[in-house]
Write a structure and sequence with these properties.
It contains 20 helices and 8 strands. The protein is α/β, with parallel strands linked by helices and 420 residues long. It folds into 3 domains: 14-218, 2-Layer Sandwich (Nucleotidyltransferase, domain 5); 228-320, Orthogonal Bundle (DNA polymerase, domain 1); 334-416, DNA polymerase, domain 1. The longest helix is centred in the middle third of the chain and has 21 residues, at 241-261. The model has no long low-confidence stretch (mean pLDDT 93). One of its GO terms (biological process) is nucleobase-containing compound metabolic process.
Length: 420
């Protein structure tokens, strides 16, 4: 461990300021009032010019309509920057924000839970070149609650308005209370960023945070999930391959309807209803209608649509039925390690214990020190020969950041030497 790492480790264990104190001050309205929603190319040009001439980091947020619409597209973009104030942009009316993105090139973006918003921002042409994630900063600094409202309250002493985060943001026109809520989400984001930067610096963790932020910016867009139907809630009840095929057929049919109608799949047919039909494998629409989730409100046409999906699954040849589990993309589930490889199980127990203890010393969540998947993969296939340099290389290949390697390579080298 270097001198810098030793200094960081000594200071990192200090907890942030207590999350208590005077009652928070309600933040009821944006400083400059609620800005008009940008809906035309001319208005967007004025916003772009204003933000290009402004200074300092830019606070960015996005509102989606999860649970109401198909997919995760953005329905409102909020921005705030010193010298430009706050802007609210309608990405439905202005679907190409690449010009605004170009105007902000080289500017640090401040987001809360950046990985949630970046995919929908990319869809409309916005991609940061550098960022500061206030949620991730809060985790690294050791805060117990890292939601935006809790962070603003605990760090800055203000109480944000609550209650509109889960509304249907595809609604047009957007009600004034919702717009006020949206504007307030970026009102203090840069102030929060500055306070967290100071706290991270005090704890010796600022460079760690910068590595994390850079990794988020550099990360490629995730590939489409393989066999997304396997994530149907209640899937664990489905044991037979033909029943699994019914889940797949119903899920696929539901997804096509949801996409065509631009509604959340759960509003078309619930996961619970899909599982019920797969377990029962009804032979007729009458039998299907008797199952939970297919009641009186469902039209005959809809029942026939879902029955057709079940019938397709029933008539598939054995060779086309899904396998019980996907091809393994890594180690087996840890619960099976004791039987499959007792030595690996012993290594995993030792590694988990070491990482947990180190995370507690550093006052940060274990998963932020090192992801559980990284620990599992390393323990299942440790490097040979087992040296600290080899462990360092393995961690780097698995995507660990340099600060994580500095904090865990030695303890993991010792853990991997455990033979059971």
């Amino acid at each position: 461990m270097t001198d810098a790492q030793e200094t960081a480790s000594a200071t990192a264990a200090q907890a942030p300021a207590p999350e208590s104190g005077p009652a928070p001050v309600p933040l009821l309205a944006p400083r400059e009032g609620i800005p008009p929603v940008t809906v035309t190319s001319h208005e967007l040009g004025r916003v772009t010019a204003s933000f290009a001439q402004a200074t300092g980091p830019v606070a960015v947020d996005a509102e989606r309509a999860s649970g109401y619409r198909y997919g995760q597209r953005a329905y409102l973009i909020q921005l705030r920057r010193e010298g430009a104030g706050t802007a609210l942009v309608d990405p439905v009316a202005c679907p190409d924000l690449s010009g605004l993105d170009a105007a902000l090139s080289g500017t640090e973006w401040v987001l809360h839970a950046a990985t949630q918003d970046l995919p929908c921002l990319r869809e409309i042409g916005m991609q940061p070149t550098s960022l500061f994630d206030t949620e991730l900063a809060g985790r690294l600094a050791g805060f117990a609650r890292v939601g935006l409202g809790a962070m603003v309250e605990n760090v800055l002493g203000y109480a944000l308005e609550k209650g509109h985060s889960a509304v249907d943001w595809s609604t047009r026109p957007l009600p004034e209370p919702w717009l006020r809520y949206a504007a307030l989400d970026v009102e203090l984001l840069v102030d929060l960023r500055n306070a967290l930067e100071e706290e991270l610096s005090r704890q010796g963790k600022l460079e760690w945070a910068r590595e994390e932020f850079a990794a988020i910016v550099a990360a490629p867009a995730p590939p489409p999930r393989k066999d997304p139907w396997r994530r149907t809630s209640g899937m664990h009840k489905v044991r037979r391959r033909r029943q699994m095929a019914a889940v797949r057929e119903l899920w696929t049919a539901r997804d096509a309807v949801a996409q065509r109608r631009d509604v959340s799949p759960g509003k078309v047919l619930t996961d619970a209803a899909i599982v019920e039909a797969a377990l029962a494998m009804p032979a007729s629409t009458r039998a299907l209608a008797a199952l939970p989730g297919y009641g009186q409100r469902m039209s005959r046409k809809q029942l026939e649509q879902w029955q057709a999906a079940v019938d397709r699954a029933r008539t598939l040849p054995e060779s086309e039925l899904p396998q019980q589990s996907q091809a393994p993309g890594g180690p087996p589930p840890p619960r099976s390690w004791a039987d499959k490889d007792p030595a690996a199980a012993a290594r995993l127990t030792a590694a988990r214990s070491g990482v947990t203890a180190r995370a507690e010393e550093l006052n940060l969540p274990q998963e932020n020190l090192l992801t559980p998947d990284t620990v599992r993969r390393l323990c299942w296939e440790p490097p040979d020969p087992l040296t600290r340099d080899a462990v360092t290389g393995a961690l780097r290949a698995l995507g660990a950041r340099e600060w994580q390697i500095g904090q865990t390579a030695a303890l993991l080298t010792a853990a991997l030497a455990v033979s059971g």
